[in-house]
């Protein structure tokens, strides 16, 4: 998976509980894996065999240089960086789900998305 990447910088570290909360608010979704226990987790629809998007393990950014300049201007370090990836040829619904997830995490964990 890959192609398009949403980069999030957040003050609070996202965890399994937040992924489960997002999935609970979207009953058609299933989370495959535990954030932090593996390099990434897959989030997909229960009806599909293909994942909608992938969420990578949070990595701590300690200095502004660890972030994209636009994110560094919005979220002071130290913070957590999370990447959400989805295929270039993803369905519109998958792109919208990945964006919705990114907004949920940045709102809940106090951050921004680039």
Architecture overview:
- The protein has 114 residues and is α+β, with helices and mostly antiparallel strands.
- The chain has one domain: TATA-Binding Protein.
- 28% of the residues lie in helices and 34% in strands.
- The protein is built from three helices and seven strands, in the order βαββββαβαβ.
- It has helices spanning 16-24, 69-74, 92-108, and strands at residues 3-10, 29-32, 40-45, 51-56, 59-61, 79-87, 111-113.
- Strands 1, 2, 3, 4, 5, 6 and 7 form a seven-stranded antiparallel β-sheet that branches.
- The two termini are 19 Å apart.
- Mean pLDDT, nearest integer? 92
**Which regions have little confidence, pLDDT < 50, spanning 5+ residues?**
none
What's the shape? Answer: globular
Largest sheet: 7 strands, antiparallel
CATH T-level fold name: TATA-Binding Protein
Order of helices and strands: EHEEEEHEHE
CATH class: Alpha Beta
Give the proportion of residues in helices: 25-40%
What percent strand? 25-35%
Features:
alpha+beta, seven-stranded antiparallel beta sheet, 3 helices
Question: How would you sum up this structure in a few lines?
Answer:
It contains 3 helices and 7 strands; from the N terminus they run βαββββαβαβ. It has helices at 16-24, 69-74, 92-108; strands at 3-10, 29-32, 40-45, 51-56, 59-61, 79-87, 111-113.
Ordered list of secondary-structure elements with their pairings:
Elements: E1 3-10, H1 16-24, E2 29-32, E3 40-45, E4 51-56, E5 59-61, H2 69-74, E6 79-87, H3 92-108, E7 111-113
Antiparallel strand pairs: 1-6, 1-7, 2-3, 3-4, 4-6, 5-6
């Amino acid at each position: 998976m890959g192609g398009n990447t949403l980069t999030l910088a957040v003050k609070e570290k996202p965890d399994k509980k937040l992924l489960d909360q997002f999935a609970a608010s979207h009953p058609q979704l299933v989370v495959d894996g535990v954030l932090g226990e593996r390099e990434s987790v897959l989030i997909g629809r229960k009806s599909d065999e293909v994942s909608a998007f992938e969420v990578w393990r949070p990595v701590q950014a300690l200095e502004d240089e660890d972030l994209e300049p636009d994110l560094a201007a919005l979220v002071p370090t130290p913070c957590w960086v999370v990447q959400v990836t989805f295929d270039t040829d993803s369905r519109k619904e998958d792109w919208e789900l990945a964006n919705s997830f990114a907004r949920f995490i940045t709102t809940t964990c106090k951050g921004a998305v680039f």
